[in-house]
Amino acid sequence: MILQREIEKIGIPTILIAALPPVAKQNGAPRVVAPRVPMGANVGEPNNVKMQMGILKDTLKALVEITTPTTIVPLDYEYIAKV
Amino acid sequence: MKLTVVKNLKSEIYVPIMPEIVWAPVNKPLNEMKVALVTGAGVHLKTDKRFNLAGDTSYRVIPREASGKDLMVSHGGYDNADVNKDINCMFPIDRLKELAQEGFIKEVSELNFGTMGGGGDIEAFTNVTGPEIAEKLKEIKVDAVVLTAG
Fold it and tell me: For residues B95 and B30, what is the distance between their CA atoms, to the nearest angstrom?
């Protein structure tokens, strides 16, 4: 979030894929997507190309669609890691 | 949308103090954008220096040519089991390249960045690491950045 804000300040639009949306919100991230994923696999299950592509595509779509700063868009993907 | 601003208006209940808004508008469609990846997940080239697991405010450059087998993770703050099986679950470089091939985005940035996030020296990240990465991205005219583990 800190890095994200610095990059946004210089004029490049950014979007964060957040595993912990409340933390992203508290730090003032400009655009956030939040799939239901654990901290160790923010972009989805390892080797699940379909899930990763889906999350990435929805992230890029949200980048152009979000108009209000600090918006968090939940994404309907779920991965529960086996520990 | 225009907001009415009344200075010195106070809230009657406690509300969190939010950081000030930073915003850079999007001015191109996705299929004309050069997209870069920046991560705080401790991803770097296998040939590059490891991050200090106890706290590290430096960054590593990851060229577009790298793919899963060239990258590794050194991060003390999360379970690396999944990312060791497939780097794309924290740093989706292969997926982003596939999207560029499909034409969903124009191209992947030639430079991408990895840091070790998870707290640490906030002032160093805000005043040194952040602006350095931002400058480099601006130099190569990146249009958008996707972050994981910011």
Answer: 15
